[in-house]
Amino acid sequence: MNENERGGPSRRALIGWGGAGLALGAAAAGGGVALSHDGPSPASAGSGGAVEFHGPHQAGIATPVQDRLHFAAFDVKTEDRAEFVQLLKDWTAAARLMTAGKPVGEGAYGGLAEAPPDDTGEALGLSPSRLTLTVGFGPSLFERFGLADRRPPALADLPKFPGDNLDKSRTGGDLCVQACADDPQVAVHAIRNLARVGFGKVAVRWSQLGFGKTSSTTPDAQTPRNLMGFKDGTRNIAGTETARLDKHVWVSASDGDAKSAWMTGGSYLVARRIRMNIETWDRASLQEQEDVFGRDKGEGAPVGKAKEHDAPFLKAMKPDAHVRLAHPDSNDGITILRRGYSFTDGTDGLGRLDAGLFFLAYQRDVREGFIPLQRRLSAHDALNEYIQHVGSAVFAVPPGVRDSHDWWGRALFSKEA
Amino acid sequence: MRAARPIAIAATAAAALTALSACTAKSDAKGGDAIQVTAADTRCDTSAKSVPAGQVTLKIENKGSRATEVEIVFPDDRIVSEKENIGPGTKYTLTAEVKAGSYEIACRPGMKGHGVRQKLDVTGSGRSTKRNPALDAAVAGYREYAQDQADETVPLAETFAKAVQAGDLDAAKKAYAPSRLGWERTEPVAESFGDIDPKVDTREDGLEDGQKWTGWHRLEKSLWQDKKIGAGDKKLAAELVTDLKDWQRRVGKAEITPTSMANGAKELLDEVATGKVTGEEDRYAHTDLVDFKGNVEGAQKAYELLKPVAAKNDSALTGELDKQFAALDKLLDKYRPAKDSYDFVSYDKVGKDQRKELSDAVNALAEPLSKLAAAVVK
């Protein structure tokens, strides 16, 4: 059969042209063209457009999930509060430019020949690619700059969960930047340039690249698969479900006292680097794989159901099935907004794929979101045989930058309260 | 060969340059006429202060009691042409192609120090652009420093070589790192000659096909890895000294500009970031922190000399650089027993977290340092 006779470019045909990496990128771009709109439109922008940077909430949470991720955690290196505040302002200015598809500072060329250019240049000529930059503050930040009493109780330290094997060099951080874009080069460019602006004030502690989105905030789109080959996060909160977002994701003015009022409109982010034991998973029988998840592998339908989005009958699943344990109905309605990505950082020293899920979840209160959920999963989930949590961090993600005069963290660093 | 000269001379040189540029030439030489240079222990008399561009001839007579050296130098002290070792009572004729511009004739009695100088105005079309005396002083000061480092290194390299030639493993190991310090401080100058660096400072992984491995790192491998000194090593030690003497002779002629000084400072930090922080430089000896310190000191010297100009153009930058140099110095001090000691902790004892901390401090300094060149030429 001639592959070209099909409705769209098939993956096999594309791989035939130029290798898997290229083919996936081309497929993604192809999908974007169909969706693309002229001009920025945060709710429905296609793969080329710009996502509005300003707003009551930071972009990159309810925004339709982009294809690529570069996530970086930073340590603060300065003890000077004013210098740190200036950095947040400089970062805001740079982010405002980059999310609009513009280079930082005075650009990547045309300046003084003796000076290194402000912008590193690798995103020149690329579209904004729906870049979003989302900043968060880690618990350790509040041990600095006299911020101790501004740490919200909802920014709880994560307890040690059973099975955790956390690598210190992939854990924690005083602050973080989540860069999501449909073009990986745009996301990497953003983190690289923010890190450069930050030298001397902050230093990258660890960073993670992610490639295949594993959750969707657009329910109509096909639910992406994780590296285990399963659809997961089927019932994720959609970017358009304002009531669910208000209930489960955005911090409300009534959530805390005056000391943590600066978080109103913000959210709390949990990041976990979850390594998958890829090789042993691949040796598990289809039956076991489907039992572990509680779904069928092809359609993604819950056990005993026909379609992915059919309401699951949890009791039909094994007691330790992942979907059963993670489902809101098993957890007093606990719901978090998942925004994770697959990662593959080559192979480890034993020739095993160093791959897994870089789990990102937003919630209104970590104590009522990730912590109880993970207590349950870490204790009982059948999936635990095939995964290990190796990195972990939690961040308070402040509200959005309102306008061109506002900056990330202004409410936290302002004098009042 | 020049002995070490005190750094304080840099300031004198700047003052002398300013004073000299104010006086006017009384006697001019015609094209083809030689300039008579009468050198003595405290004098350097010249028969002309102005000469047309082209071939310039100096008829030198040493009337002093010591051997002397006579040079035509640029305002930034780079040597246009020179004659070393003119004995007492002897004469020498020096000719050189000289373009239009302001120069000095320097007599160095005893072949050391700043010497006694006379202004030489070379007239003609194609005059070089207006010079900035503050930047000339900075370059002259840096050249002085680079020369000092070379002058101090040669005897230290000889000590190292002697230990190798005596087959004394322990003494050779002890003399290894100190023999590198002056080189590491001024590496960009040394590297500008092109041919010396590959001979003395190539690492095993930097060898090109067919290139013979010579220099410090080859000997480092013998001393620490093979733990024995062979006949070949003894020869290499002698070659190292020869090559370093070549470097010492050529520093005076190195092309140094304010921009190359600033970029050199940045390059020294690049060296630290890519070679020392990773422990690749001295992978057998683990004396990386000594080289690290040398690189930082050399960068700081260049910066301090350029700072008066840079501060006028961008005081925020110099403020940041002062802060970051101090922070890195303080961090490095943790790895040595006393502030004047170069007995740094062996780098294989420096843990992953500590290396990260050093790397962060290097980035914090190197980023603003990359903007120094622009602040100097603005």
Describe what this molecule looks like in 3D.
The complex is a heterodimer of chains A (417) and B (378). In chain A, strands 5, 6, 7, 8 and 9 form a five-stranded antiparallel β-sheet that branches. Chain A has one domain. Chain A is built from ten helices and nine strands. With 378 residues, chain B is α+β, with helices and mostly antiparallel strands. Chain B has two domains: 89 residues, Immunoglobulin-like (Sandwich); 244 residues, M75 peptidase, HXXE motif (A middle domain of Talin 1). Chain B contains twelve helices and nine strands. In chain B, the strands form two sheets. A five-stranded mixed β-sheet of chain B has the order 3-9-8-5-6, with no helix packed on it. In chain B, helix 3 packs parallel to helix 9, helix 9 runs antiparallel to helix 10 and helix 10 packs antiparallel against helix 11. The two termini of chain B are 38 Å apart. At the A-B interface, loops of A face helix 11 and helix 12 of B. Chain B: Pfam families: Cupredoxin_1, Peptidase_M75.
Task: Provide tags for this entry.
heterodimer; A: 417 residues; alpha+beta; five-stranded antiparallel β-sheet; four-stranded antiparallel β-sheet; B: 378 residues; Immunoglobulin-like; A middle domain of Talin 1
